């Protein structure tokens, strides 16, 4: 599935639509270059979980921020991580298998400890505020989730 956003507000709305289909325990991977809109989409997901989007900031320097909402939101940013062994040494992989909604920016840093099932959203910058999203689901649970999100976007 693919989607084009023409503004920050549309990206936030997309995040809210995604959150509306979450039940807890989901892993959402956000991949893209610096400035592609990963944190903006994470803010929209947070907002859809009843979390004030203004409280959501990129966890680049702390690796993880946790926000209480309809479901607990764990927001990771692995930009500064160089090897998966660093993640293992910190024990962060334990967070990946909880009842919280887990959003991970820079998931490619996980390599061999990447979860077996997830929803991945690849973000591309098209122009000033335009963002292109490519959705991929791995695992039956996430294929069903993606179908629901697709239905919401079409409506």
Q: What key attributes describe this structure?
A:
single chain, 155 residues, alpha/beta, Rossmann fold, 7-stranded mixed β-sheet, 29% helix, globular
Structure description:
With 155 residues, the chain is α/β, with parallel strands linked by helices. It has four helices and seven strands. The protein has a single domain, classed as P-loop containing nucleotide triphosphate hydrolases (Rossmann fold, 3-Layer(aba) Sandwich). Strands 1-7-6-2-5-4-3 form a seven-stranded mixed β-sheet. The longest helix has 15 residues. The radius of gyration is 14 Å and the shape is globular. The two termini are 15 Å apart.
Which secondary structure elements does this structure contain, and how are they paired or packed?
Elements: E1 2-5, H1 8-19, E2 27-31, H2 38-48, E3 64-67, E4 73-77, H3 84-90, E5 101-105, E6 118-125, E7 131-138, H4 140-154
Parallel strand pairs: 2-5, 2-6, 4-5
Antiparallel strand pairs: 1-7, 3-4, 6-7
Helix pairs in contact: 1-2
Largest sheet: 7 strands, mixed
What's the arrangement of strands in the largest beta sheet?
A: 1-7-6-2-5-4-3
Element pattern in H and E = EHEHEEHEEEH
Q: How many independent structural domains?
A: 1
Known CATH architecture: 3-Layer(aba) Sandwich
Q: Count of helical segments? A: 4
- Indicate the proportion of strand residues: 25-35%
Q: How much helicity do the residues have?
A: 25-40%
> Whole-Å distance between the termini?
15 Å
Rg measurement, Å: 14 Å
Structural class: alpha/beta
User: How would you classify the quaternary structure?
Assistant: single chain
Average pLDDT, all residues: 91
Approximate shape: globular
**CATH class categorisation:** Alpha Beta
- The CATH homologous superfamily corresponds to P-loop containing nucleotide triphosphate hydrolases
CATH topology: Rossmann fold
């Amino acid at each position: 599935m693919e989607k084009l956003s023409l503004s920050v507000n549309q990206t936030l709305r997309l995040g809210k639509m995604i959150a509306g289909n979450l039940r807890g325990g989901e892993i959402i991977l956000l991949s893209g270059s610096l400035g592609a809109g990963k944190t903006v989409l994470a803010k929209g997901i947070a907002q859809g979980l009843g979390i004030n989007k203004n409280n959501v900031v990129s966890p680049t320097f702390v690796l993880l921020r946790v926000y209480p909402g309809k479901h607990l939101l764990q927001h990771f940013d692995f930009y500064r991580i160089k090897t998966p062994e660093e993640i293992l040494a910190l024990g962060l992989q334990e967070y990946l298998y909880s009842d919280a909604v887990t959003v991970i920016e820079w998931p490619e840093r996980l390599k061999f400890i990447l979860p077996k099932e997830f929803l991945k959203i690849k973000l591309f910058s098209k122009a000033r505020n335009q963002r292109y999203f490519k959705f991929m689901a791995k695992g039956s649970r996430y294929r069903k989730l993606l179908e629901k999100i697709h239905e919401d976007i079409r409506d």
